[in-house]
What does this fold into?
Amino acid sequence: MKTLKIKPLLIKAFGIAAAVFIMASCTEKIDIELDESYTRLVVEGKITTDTTAHLIRLTRSTSYFYPEQAPGVSGAEVTLDDGSDIITLTETEPGTYATPADYHGLPGRNYTLSINLSEPIGGHDNYTASSYMNIPAPLDSIKAVFRSEWGPDGFYEITCYVQDSSSVDFYMFNVLKNGELISDTLNKVFVTDDRFYNGNYTNGIGIGYLNQSYERQKVNPGDILAIESARITEEYFKFVTQLQIQSGYQSPLFSGPPSNIKGNISNGGIGFFATYPVSYTSTIAESN
It folds into this structure.
């Protein structure tokens, strides 16, 4: 019996020694050259039914090791066409272009963003993107349910109640607490299709989550919790889903190589120009 126990240890020890020898022998320095010559235009922006100055952000793609914020693209002519009127956006800071403050999107219209650069990027000085604004689908109501069994300090799950239409739809939900947007980046928003409740009443499915281990997400009795709901296009749904997958944890051994996320910018531009209607539904948090 003792011999059976020793043999695996000897094999393991030999394996460790061999690994140390190999690692000690591999001391040659290898310099990897990354191709940084191909710069592309990056477009970020959205138009919603909110009345506000909507922003379009233009930047240049940068190298993998670029330590600063991506440089903004100034001096471009940026216009927005809703099929009826065309407006020219104003550059408010380098690379940021804004609509008038009283601007709002109209459901049922197709919007075209046109960008005319002062100098070419990626071999092109003109870029376009188009997006259809769906008809809104507001929620009937929401509830905040405390789940003490989820995590060390529990979660608040925000559930929704609404009659879903019989069409195939795609939704995006943002969480607000006392007017502050909690899901403030695309990798924090909740997106879903309606495959599991198509044409039915949802009757309390989860659409938002607040982790009570995080100070910013902690909920106190009397807090106003709200959901910004948006009926988005399938194209934008796929874009956000791909972004969330690639920005999340991936095992380097078992994951495929990362690829560019497909957007809707012409001429090889990166990013997405989105349009969608928004509606707001709120509830008041009660004690656990």
